[in-house]
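Data deposition worksheet. Section B asks for the primary sequence of the deposited chain exactly as it was used as input, without tags or linkers unless they were present during the calculation. Section C holds the resulting structure in token form. Section D is free text for depositor observations; keep each observation to a single sentence. Incomplete worksheets are returned to the depositor.
Section A, Depositor: J.P.
Section B:
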Amino acid sequence: MRPRRCVHPWARPVLLAALLLVPVLPPGPAPAAVVTAGGRPAGPAVPAVGRTWPVGTHPPVLRDWAPPPGPYAPGHRGVDLAAPPGAPVRAVAPGRVSFAGRVAGKGVVSLELAGTGDPPLRTTYEPVRASVREGEEVTAGEVIGAVEPTGSHCAAPCLHWGLRGAGTYLNPLMLLPPRLLRAGPSRLLPVLGVPLPT
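Section C:
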């Protein structure tokens, strides 16, 4: 014979009232990217170990990083960079391939970045047709795959680039030093008051 569970008469109304009082808030607009005086995006401290963009030389950011307020809340856990199908995808920094395969029908490559602590920062690229294997060591700028023509969540072709460290999502643009974040070529300005060499 199974023991009978006793529920106090006041328990059900109290539980129902508690559930009804929990506010359900609609998701707000994605926060705009904030850039510090040094030219780097604001966010938790991330070492600027990047040596190159993952695609192109300064691709347009189609959608910025919008960290979710909680682990299951809506948000954008990376940045979307404009990239045509077939474009080479490069490792932004040296590291080790921790994953190269398919997730939910998309090609994904993840790298553990060297010299970024224990556990190391992990950067992820998708949708990518991988040209590397799990366990391989890669150098900064090395081609790790190519942008796949399908599997992107962008309206236009793009590469989704993410960064994760210590169990939380981080802004991958923080990996890049200010010189890489500036658009356009570097220009030398004239130095006034200094005679020209003869």
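Section D:
The helical segments are 11-21, 178-181.
Residues 13-38 have pLDDT under 50 and may be disordered.
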